[in-house]
Amino acid sequence: MSARKRRKRKNGAVSIVIIVLTFLAVMSIQIFKLKQKEAMYAAKEAELQETYELETERAQEIEALADYVQSDQYIIDMAHSKLGLAYDNEIIFKESK
Question: What single-letter DSSP state applies at residue 93?
Fold first, then answer.
């Protein structure tokens, strides 16, 4: 082999190594960015899951309150507290000042 062929072959190998190293660097950067996004999305998912659980609990409380408001017990409680009504057999005490 002549010196010229060896130099071309060596230059070709160096070019391939540079391309491969560049490719590895770019891929490493992309992997790092994806891991950061994954961590961010995991935190967001945890936050949204907590919010979902709180809102589900709140919806159950609202549903229970709606059931209570439509019950006879609610009407009785409002009659006692707002209107001051009482059953015939109840004795009401008022505080003296």
Answer: -
What span, in angstroms and rounded, lies between the C-alpha atoms of 22 and 31? 14
In a domain, 88, yes or no: no
Tokens encoding 26: 């770019």
DSSP collapsed to 3 states, 6-66: HHHHHHHHHHHHHHHHHHHHHHHHHHHHHHHHHHHHHHHHHHHHHHHHHHHHHHHHHHHHH
Q: How many domains does the chain have?
A: 1
pLDDT > 70? residue 5 = no
- What residues contact residue 85 under an 8 Å CB cut-off, 6+ apart? 79
Tens of pLDDT, residues 47-63: 999 999 999 999 999 99
By three-state DSSP, how is residue 4 classified?
A: helix
pLDDT at 90: 75
